[in-house]
Amino acid sequence: MRAVPAAIDDVLHRTIDGGGHVCVLTGAGMSAESGIPTFRGTHDSLWSRFDPMRLATAGAWREDPALVWGWYRWRMHRVREAQPNAGHRALAQLTRRVPLWLVTQNVDDLHERGGSTVDAHVHGNLFALRCFACGRAHEGPLDEYMDDAQRVEPMRCVACGDRIRPGVVWFGEALPEDAWTTAVDAATRCSLMLVVGTSGLVYPAAGLPALARRHGAVVVEINPELTALSADADHVWCATAAQALPLLAR
Ligand code: OAD
Questions:
Q1: Model's pTM, two decimal places?
Q2: Which of 50, 216, 226, 233 stands 20 to 30 A from 10 (CA)?
């Protein structure tokens, strides 16, 4: 792949020339080329190997906190070992061409380590640890990483003694209010929305492209596969994040 498809190049130039903003919505596919597994779609994706109802709900935590914490410690370890890919770095460069809001469903920190400021982590952040009971942020170091999928007893809150949980949004939980407000604001005010590496199956985040479109934005999807969002996108660029984004940022 050598160039940005002409129609997408044209939209980007019109956005830049018209003083418009871009909103980039990213999902797990954004980090796939950094070696972080996606949730769906491949034989080694997370939800094909693990049951989200046993690992990613408040009920699962109450039932077996050591199982859940061990799994999240494994995921944190994967992220710590990974490096931002060319797509992450390109988004940081793109902010020099056009004002950009970055909204991610990803709970890793690869956008930040790739040089971007994330405006909204709508599904939280793995490393923003807090107490399950009182919500106090956990400031101390992480406990030692154990091996793949071992049970690990969670650390304890210094204030109330309850267990420390990962800073992610679990199924059935509300999105962080500030992040969601920012995401909606960005979607309603942008002229161009780039939807990168998401299956578009998990709401409310999956509703952001339609919201942007209703407010007049052009929606461009970047994904090697067609998704639930493709039919409603203005342009679909069948490419990976690390292929497409460096071309756009040039
Ligand atoms: P999914 O795993 O559902 O979808 C990943 C998408 O990335 C798929 O559409 C792939 O085709 C695409 N993809 C794979 N490799 C790619 C690449 N190199 N470049 C670009 N795209 C690629 O991930 P999400 O849509 O992010 O929620 O999942 C949404 C939410 O479901 C997650 O935030 C998580 C999960 O349950 C919570 O944890 C709350």
A1: 0.97
A2: 226
